[in-house]
Design a protein that fits this description.
Rossmann fold
């Protein structure tokens, strides 16, 4: 099924700082698993503020980060090549990368067009890696989120190898502000939601990083 960009996508522009401040990186073991399987040249597509890109770069991978929103792209660290572009119009030549990583972003893409572009920029035998963070098990943060969120979760069930990790958040307000389903609320509802998160304070959250590495032709086949 082909999907256009979700109307909530621009909401990330106004919460870029909160996203960078409060969102977790990815489990180090998961990143090691990923870097052991991809080649030296990687495109991180829908890179956001470079959460995954900086971990790949630290592991010695040459990363090109492509992100459409200037507010997010501006927070990608110096030393990582960051380009304006979308999954449907990747600003790279044909057969130019060994792998494409997509972290927390594939559900934003027009799937058919994006897969065509990913296929175009991959070298023969190149891989697509879908990476996601999920809070597991859900806790008080998720209970408050469920009461206020503007729309249900956009991502489907997780797939791939699982790597647990912990993430400490100084204030759950910043993490909540970075959630699209909170950022898209009207001002009154958003303020009420953030007040509830303020009362939670901060603390450690348990996450699981899922890394799903596929050949493109295998992406939509169950069990592949």
């Amino acid at each position: 099924m082909t999907r256009g960009p979700h109307p909530a996508a621009p909401s990330f522009a106004r919460v870029a700082e909160a996203y960078e401040r409060a969102r977790p990186g990815y489990a180090p073991e998961g990143v090691a698993y990923l870097t052991a399987r991809v080649g030296p040249e990687v495109l991180d597509l829908g890179a956001g503020t470079g959460k995954l890109a900086r971990q790949l770069a630290a592991a010695g991978v040459h990363v090109v980060a492509v992100e459409p929103l200037a507010e997010l792209r501006a927070l990608i660290p110096a030393g990582i090549e960051a380009l304006a572009g979308t999954a449907e119009a990747i600003p790279l030549p044909d057969a130019s990368v060994d792998a494409v990583t997509v972290a927390q972003a594939f559900h934003w893409f027009d799937e058919e067009r994006a897969l065509g572009e990913i296929q175009r920029v991959l070298r023969p035998g190149g891989l697509l890696a879908l990476v996601s963070n999920r809070r597991e098990p859900p806790g008080a943060f998720d209970e408050v989120l469920a009461r206020h969120r503007a729309h249900p979760p956009l991502e489907g069930p997780p797939r791939g190898e699982a790597f647990p990790h912990l993430h400490r958040v100084d204030s759950f307000v910043h993490l909540a502000a970075s959630e699209t389903s909170i950022a898209t609320l009207d001002e009154e509802k958003r303020a009420a939601a953030l007040a509830d998160f303020e009362r939670l304070g901060g603390g450690e959250l348990r996450y699981v990083t899922y890394v799903h590495i596929v050949q493109l032709g295998c992406l939509r086949q169950p069990g592949c």
